[in-house]
């Protein structure tokens, strides 16, 4: 983990090349996070991966959390590891919900981290977030013809109709 | 007749074959769509989601302590690791230190579970390669581990033993002696497995040089655990991050050289012996003391106090009905499971239920490397590579 001043140094370094790409930093419960502008997320990730002295080359997890009712509501988390210095860093991009049937979109990082392929598909499957440039953005765990984004906070638990009604019909 | 068939050019045409989802060789409910040219795999697509049960979603509707038995059922072979990832994340969210004895107890059960998981892997994978007797030998030792789990926790699988703040109860009398007996015997057993397999011509020719993926590519694909270590990368979260009692333990990280299926087998078998060392050291270092933190806001009061102390009764009532509330925040906590980096992300919104629980399951990520392991090899070697990958589909689909 970079400590709080270390996190500010990383921020300053990124902002020298990509001004306004880092919106905020947070250092909470010993975990460092950069909150970045979603349109510049690839630039930041690329810099963290390749710039000398950083080498956050391993993406250990990509996941999404729904912060409803906060706005912007979707947070795409990238958990990076610098394996030389044994440091973790979280990059977080917050996406607003465009509403109606329009899906929130962010650039895919599969080109930088091939491991994100399945994880971006999972995020699309459950939260309906479009990863622009993903080679095959389809549902991965839910059935292909499924409608809805089940892990959004406004999707009810148990909101699923029961499809096997044999018993209900005969004994219900 | 047979010779003319073989020499005829019949293998140019690609044939798409569907394997699974219900097939004993896919180690769970995994479906493989394979393009074959003769017997050679030319393309492969794993199709997953058949055991998706929405556990992550269900967790959002449970108070923090009720989530524990849920997450155990994701990767159903390494349930202690799921519990540790989740409980550790919640402890970091609320800032709860666990007492030393709980650290050692957790370490012991995690390593027992690692041996158990590797035994299930070794038995079933050797079975795929035709070494049927391995299954009986491995499951014999696995049963002894399950007996130990039952003795300490009351359950053989899905024990719900770890709690936020420590473990649910201390180990019973006689457990330590039984565990020491097992720990002393296990390396001998591992030697017997090696004697059965290491000089077995069929096993060697089926595993050596098969399923190689380079270490750089594995890192790009996010592969962790024994698969990565077999390719020569000594990356083990038990060594690099500070959690539980691992910083005090002396153990080696076995690594392979070329990263073929044989190395994967060697690494896992060597890990079982290393795990017994960790268990033994934990037993030696463990001292008497509390096995769960003494913070009544998060930890149930002892049963005996309930009939004498009004305050304990109130705490008990609050914890059992509503559960404890957690200040808003988010934590990602990862540990080394038998399959690699098992991460748990918990988002708290201030209520008594987590607003998001996500597991970074190593099987799910490692499965991405399967195509590169299998393409260009025979279909029989593809099955061997799948076994050596050791995916647990409950963890993949969650």
Structural description of this entry:
The complex is a heterodimer of chains A (172) and B (398). The longest helix of chain A is centred in the first third of the chain and has 14 residues, at 4-17. With 172 residues, chain A is an alpha/beta fold. Chain A is elongated. Chain A is 24% helix and 27% strand. Chain A is built from four helices and seven strands; from the N terminus they run αββαββββαβα. In chain A, strand 4 (74-82) and strand 5 (87-95) form a beta hairpin. Chain A starts with a helix and ends with a helix. Chain B is α+β, with helices and mostly antiparallel strands. Chain B has a domain at 65-324: Cytochrome-c3 Hydrogenase, chain B. Chain B is built from 17 helices and ten strands. In chain B, the strands form four sheets. Chain B has a three-stranded antiparallel beta sheet. Chain B has a three-stranded antiparallel beta sheet with strand order 8-9-10. In chain B, strand 6 (162-163) and strand 7 (166-167) form a beta hairpin. In chain B, helix 5 runs antiparallel to helix 6, helix 5 (100-128) packs antiparallel against helix 16 (379-389) and helix 6 (132-153) packs antiparallel against helix 7. In chain B, 51% of the residues are buried. Chain A binds chain B through residues 28-31, 57-61, 63, 65-67, 77, 79, 83, 86, 88, 90, 113-119, 122, 139-143, 150-151, 153, 155, 157, and chain B through 48-49, 52, 54, 56-58, 60-61, 92-93, 95, 219-224, 235, 240-241, 329-332, 334, 341, 343, 345, 347, 355-356, 358, 360, 364-365, 367-368, 397-398.
